[in-house]
Amino acid sequence: MADVKKIATRESYGNALKELAAQHDDLVVFDADLAGATKTGIFKKAYPDRHFNCGIAEGNMMAVAAGAAAAGLVPFASTFAMFAAGRAFEQIRNSIGYPHLNVKIGATHGGISVGEDGASHQCCEDFALMRSIPGMVVMSPADDVEARAMVKAAYEHVGPVYMRFGRAAVPVFHEEEGYTFQIGKGEVLQDGSDVAIIANGLMVAEAVEAGKALKELSINARIINMATIKPLDEELVLQAAKDCGKIITCEEHNILGGLGEAVCGLLCEKLPTPVRRIGVNDEFGHSGPAAALLKQFGLSAEHIVEVAKDFCGK
Amino acid sequence: MTANEKKQLMATACKVRMGVIEGTHAAKAGHPGGSLSAADMFTYLYFKELNVDPQNPHWEDRDRFVLSKGHTAPGLYAALALRGFFPWEDLQTLRQIGSHLQGHPNMNMTPGVDMSTGSLGQGVSAACGMALAAKFQGKSNRVYALLGDGEIQEGQVWEACMFAHHYKLDNLCVIIDNNGLQIDGRVADVMSPYPIPEKLRAFGFEVAEIDGHDFDQMEAAFAKARETKGVPFAIVMKTTKGKGVSYMEDQAGWHGKAPNDAEYEQAMTELKAQLAEVEAM
């Protein structure tokens, strides 16, 4: 994919906010001293009067956003995933989730691809934490086109939304022309019936790569982009389980509590199907370049191919 | 305020206190101590200060009240019922299955509740968000938040105070109920928040220090709050926890305990006597 355009989804987030703001006067943005990194700075440059820095006080920021939503605004609150889902979990749970307020949480720097900053900043628990809050929509886009459409869908949705964006630039594989995004709907990127690979975030591009490699080995994999972790597209997962009989989940997240467990939770109740979960194996990350870390933690097309080969007995 | 107005407020406060006792006794749970210390403030807010409409609780331009010390919901509920947001009889359903009166305030269930609270330290931040939104929307409504003196041990309260000053939220009035007690004892012994007014001033607030059981002082403080421009306003009110019920007064043990039948009878007898005394004035 060397010649493919690459954009970090946090960049897409900042750009989408700016585009959305032109149409909606009630959209405001809160950040916690990370506007440059979360890319809400792009929005701030265009709409300085609608961007409110909260300083390094994430808990306060989430509850402030809740109050602003209660007063009729549509706030997007941003910081790193670690400090949004992690540090401010209880504020999100009690001041946003419980009253079901219309706050959109734009969490950037999710997962291990944060890279050099190391484990303290590599949030691999956010899907688990946010999934556990009733009524919370939890999403993670795969590329620029999807990320921008997701931000717009989040604005249109009434209720709390958690979106995880990445720090690292990722390949843009969706065509802008005619593209539509719907919350709670997965997307089949390649059809196949030997095994279904369900991925989100930057693992989608890896899954697509893996799908091509597997084809060479006569394994026809169905590649599914599951950008919405909650509510899960149950129909698509069940159809994949029925058609393929084997499921591999791929996410830049602890294998506990994220997409993998969401899929397993559904399947074990409705259609028991063997599943292999690819993700961070319940361990902390460490410093290093993102690409090297992803490889080291098995978050790569190569590792997906290995798992799929083994799973399919080849 | 006229003598008659004051008399009316005093009578209403007695009824708010009765509502606290009725609710917590029926629920066999709840937080009477801090509800009673703030009963006069609840009364003043809902019968004098707040621009609200019980017939239209979601009116967009209303003043907002956030009970950041959400556990004292029985006091808020009694004031809301008396103000006409819902029937007085509902207080008997406090904390029971099917009731809109949750143990801590729920904005989606109870008419007149502007923010769901209960986890200490968060309500004041939400109030900041509401005040910021009002300014952003060019509205002239005001936002009030009531906090406990134990609650201000939460670091988030001070994050919110920084925010309020930074964004010049002069439409925000933060009220601290300084009854001096929290669950484990005296706030001064558990984790001293003192001196409270000085801390608030250091955070950029204009501060009024009042007796939280004196309506004249409340009137003066709120007038000053409305006149203050460019900075947020705080009212630090000295109160007696459990005020109005002799055996509950200044007792930490009555923070989160309901009166039994005998205690209920005694409390109601005392409050009825106080009401009769006010009405005879």
Question: How would you describe this structure to a colleague?
Answer:
The complex is a heterodimer of chains A (314) and B (281). In chain A, strands 3-2-4-5-7-6-12 form a 7-stranded mixed sheet, sandwiched between helices. In chain A, strands 9-11-10-13-14 form a 5-stranded mixed sheet, with helices on both faces. Chain A has a two-stranded antiparallel sheet with strand order 1-8. In chain A, helix 9 links the parallel strand 10 and strand 11. Chain A has helices at residues 9-23, 35-38, 40-46, 58-70, 81-87, 89-97, 126-131, 144-156, 203-216, 234-244, 259-270, 290-296, 301-311, and strands at 6-8, 27-31, 51-53, 74-80, 104-108, 137-139, 161-164, 169-171, 187-190, 195-199, 221-225, 228-230, 247-254, 275-280. In chain A, helix 4 (58-70) runs parallel beside helix 6. Chain A has 13 helices and 14 strands. With 314 residues, chain A is of the alpha/beta class. By secondary structure, chain B is an alpha/beta fold. Helices cover 44% and strands 12% of the residues of chain B. Chain B has a 5-stranded parallel sheet with strand order 1-2-3-7-6, with helices on both faces. In chain B, strands 4-5 form a two-stranded antiparallel ribbon. In chain B, helix 1 packs across helix 3 and helix 3 runs parallel beside helix 4 (73-83). Chain A binds chain B through residues 28, 50, 52, 54-55, 57, 59-60, 62-73, 75, 90-91, 94-95, 98-100, and chain B through 60, 64, 66, 106-108, 114-116, 118-119, 121-123, 125-134, 136-137, 156, 159-160, 162-163, 166-167.
